[in-house]
Specification:
The structure is a single chain. The chain is α+β, with helices and mostly antiparallel strands and 257 residues long. It folds into two domains: 2-123, hypothetical protein PF0899 fold (2-Layer Sandwich), CATH 3.30.2320; 130-256, Tumour Suppressor Smad4. 21% of the residues lie in helices and 34% in strands. The chain contains five helices and 18 strands. The strands form five sheets. Strands 7-6-18-17-14-15 form a six-stranded antiparallel β-sheet, with no helix packed on it. A hairpin with a 5-residue loop joins strand 9 (165-167) and strand 10. The longest helix has 14 residues, at 60-73. The radius of gyration is 22 Å and the shape is elongated. The model is unreliable at 4-18 (pLDDT under 50).
Length: 257
């Protein structure tokens, strides 16, 4: 036990010129995020699906310890995908992330203890991927008052909230809600202006509901059970036909066509 606590204290200390494994991981994700490209109309793309993270480990003991951290504490593939979704960026199909350890520094490292090699490999679509066509989403308002009673939507990303348009302090439009609750009404005011979003994930072949950071009271009622949707879960919860989605005290029901 004492060895374990000692090791934990070692990892909490600055590692290799003040860079801890936690800071390295965060810097890797920031580096990935910096490669996201805005292409207009609120759309962002990430042009790579093959990432190789090179970590500097100049000593055998450092490599052994760092390998343990990467193996037991990191999940870079999922973490990269989550960071891209936070930026409203579709995760490229066939995304792969692996890690290599380097014994000697090279110009690629500069002042850092890592560098990321970016590439793109075109993969032939499989029959399963080709068959996973995106269905239209039907959203029916059960409780509260929206601009429509029933919405039929065929977007990869669908925004839910109060008001058609959300503007910033300078009057610039920062978001347009596809399912828009009206401003008036006690129930409607429990819906945040930026409350939730539904995104299509081609890899899983499903729609996923995600709560926004400043929204509260987002949950799904399914088969007699309530599923909380946390704003801290950047993947969200996969929707099923017939799910009742609660946005504050407002309720909508989802179906697929």
């Amino acid at each position: 036990m004492s060895d374990f606590l000692g090791k934990m204290r070692d990892w909490l200390k600055p590692w290799m010129k003040g860079t801890s494994p936690l800071e390295i991981r965060r810097a890797i994700l920031d580096d990935v995020e910096s490669r996201v490209i805005a292409v207009g109309g609120g759309k962002r793309v990430f042009p790579f699906n093959r990432l190789r993270v090179h970590l500097l480990a100049p000593e055998p003991q450092v490599r052994t310890e760092l390998e343990a951290v990467v193996r037991e504490g990191w999940n870079l593939k999922d973490e990269v995908a989550a960071r891209l979704r936070e930026r409203d960026c579709v995760v490229p199909p066939g995304m792969e992330v692996d890690v290599a350890f380097e014994e000697a520094a090279s110009p690629n490292f500069a002042e850092r203890r890592f560098w990321v090699e970016y590439a793109r490999a075109e993969a032939a679509p499989t029959p399963e991927v080709a068959a996973a066509a995106r269905p239209a989403l039907e959203v029916t308002v059960l409780k509260g008052t929206a601009t429509q009673h029933v919405y039929e939507l065929d977007n990869e990303r669908i925004y839910l909230g109060r008001l058609d348009e959300v503007v910033d302090a300078d009057g610039r439009v920062r978001r347009r809600n596809d399912v828009a609750f009206r401003e008036e009404g006690e129930i409607n005011h429990t819906v945040s202006r930026e409350h939730a979003r539904i995104a299509w994930d081609g890899a899983s072949g499903g729609y996923w509901l995600r709560a926004e950071q400043n929204a509260s009271g987002t949950r799904i009622y399914r088969s007699g059970k309530t599923i909380e949707v946390s704003a801290h879960d950047r993947r969200g919860v996969r929707l099923q036909p017939g799910d009742e989605v609660h946005l504050g005290r407002a309720v909508v029901k989802v179906g697929f066509r």
